[in-house]
Every structure is written in C-alpha cells, then in structure tokens.
Amino acid sequence: MSRSDLCWFLRECLVEHCFLDDVEAKRYSGHSARAGGATEFIKTRIPRHIIMGLAGVTSEGWIATYDRVSLDRRLAVSSSFGF
Q: What is the pLDDT along the chain (83 residues), one digit of tens a residue?
C-alpha cells in the first residue's frame, strides 16, 4: 500500500470509527504504522535490505531510527560493553 493510500485509509477510519471530523483526522499520518512495522521486522530479524525495500527507503540510517527493540535487547547490548 502506498503512503498516500495508507494515510487516506487511516483518516477515513478515524472519521468513521473514532468520530473525528475531517480537519482533526488530517492531523494523522501513517508514521506510527510504518515505525511499528519496521520495529517488528527488526525484532524478527528480517534482513535489512528487505525492510528497506518494503519501506521504500534507501538509507540504512532510516532503519536505525526505527530499531525500537525491547528493553531486554537494549540492555544486553549495553551489558556487552560493560555498562
């Protein structure tokens, strides 16, 4: 689904099911869904090039921004450095 289609669908759902008006619904985009999807792919160790292709991005830095893995995993990395 393209970003514009996702935003349109999200906004339609916000109006129909959450009873927002059109102006309020237009304040929302698909960012959370994209970030959540990337995070889940990272957690399940989907190869980065596949995540990048699905997200339509070319920068590895984009993935680092959305690597919102569990606290346990972040702490394990810190522990490996002696923190």
A: 677 888 899 899 999 999 999 999 999 887 777 778 888 888 888 998 998 888 778 887 877 777 766 667 667 767 777 75
Token duo for residue 14:
């916000």
The residues spanned by each domain of the chain are 3-80
**Is the CB of residue 10 less than 8 Å from the CB of residue 29?**
yes
Q: How far is CA 47 from CA 2, 25, 60, 83, in A?
A: 21, 34, 12, 28
Looking at residue 67, its amino acid is: D
26: closest CA among 42, 39, 12, 38?
12
Evaluate whether 6 touches 30 at the Cβ level (below 8 Å): yes
pTM of the model: 0.54
